[in-house]
Amino acid sequence: MKKIIAGSSSPMLAKNLAKEMNAPIASVSVKRFPDGECYVRLHEEVEHAIIVQNTYPDENIIELFLLEDAAKRMASRVDVIIPYYGYGRQDKIFEYGEAISAEKMARLIEQDASSVILVNPHKEHIINFFSIPAMAADATTTIAEYFKGKVDMVVAPDKGAAAMAEKAASVIQCDYDYFEKHRISGSEVETKLKSMDVAGKNIVIIDDIISTGGTMIQAIKQLVRQEANNIYVACIHGLFIGNADDKILQEGAKEIVSTDTIESAYSKVSVAKEIAKLLENLKN
């Protein structure tokens, strides 16, 4: 029987996944000793374990490893769901002497796992670091569905998110554009939309991650200057470091929407359905 094992980092998503799959959530204890070390214990038998746990921040990594170890000692199958794959940004060597953290994490995680599912990893090729079956769920469509009827246009804050904006726009059935950087001088860079006029339009700015919010804030400022109407902000993974959410709202965003990969007040859509589909494909 399948049972969901909810790590400390994603209880909301674990609950949503359990509901989506009609599977129970296993009883588990997770606690910290006075010196900070983690302790986990499964209180019931599990034949097929589905662990839901992030690898961000650092303490959640150790918890994941211990949950895997506990599950592996009793279950015949252990599927690991990592909603937000921390350490995924370092996916190659940029400068000599660096560690490839995305690959190292994969090597450690796969030791006690039968399969792994990531949600919108920083780069799609990260799943190739795993030697066990690994897949990436895409929450773009789920976020786009939320904005149907609310917006006239989808905007990416930079060229890197343009494909995501295009996919969301195809679901909403509206236009899309992205911001480009233009160097004016040696010290001055201008950011502007590639082609579209935004005056009077309701717009959602979409990206995979909001960390400090700097890129998103610059995009909002430009849209306000160009007299956009309502400006919404959406992301898959909402880290919101250093009160980034407050800063985004203060700049003029009407609403912030993120998924339940990282639980917050802005987790208004769930990636549970996409994950459940991939788990079903693994079975087949």
Write the H/E string, N to C.
EHEEEHEHEEHEHEEEHEHEEH
Please give the alpha-carbon distance between the first and last residues. Answer: 16 Å
* Mean pLDDT figure: 94
Low-confidence stretches: none
Strand order of the largest sheet: 10-9-8-11-12-13-14
**What count of domains describes the coordinates?**
2
Structural class: alpha/beta
Kindly state the percentage of residues in helix.
Answer: 25-40%
User: Rough shape?
Assistant: elongated
CATH topology annotation of the largest domain: Rossmann fold
Second rung of CATH, namely the architecture of the largest domain: 3-Layer(aba) Sandwich
Proportion of residues in β-strands? 25-35%
Number of helices: 8
CATH C-level of the largest domain: Alpha Beta
Radius of gyration: 20 Å
Number of strands: 14
Description:
- The chain has 284 residues and is of the alpha/beta class.
- The chain has two domains: 2-138 and 270-283, Rossmann fold; 141-260, Rossmann fold (3-Layer(aba) Sandwich), CATH 3.40.50.2020.
- Helix content is 30%, strand content 27%.
- The chain is built from eight helices and 14 strands.
- The strands form three sheets. The protein has a seven-stranded mixed sheet with strand order 10-9-8-11-12-13-14. A five-stranded parallel sheet has the order 1-4-5-6-7, sandwiched between helices. A two-stranded antiparallel sheet has the order 2-3.
- The longest helix is centred in the N-terminal third of the chain and has 15 residues, at 58-72.
- The two termini are 16 Å apart.
- The mean pLDDT is 94.
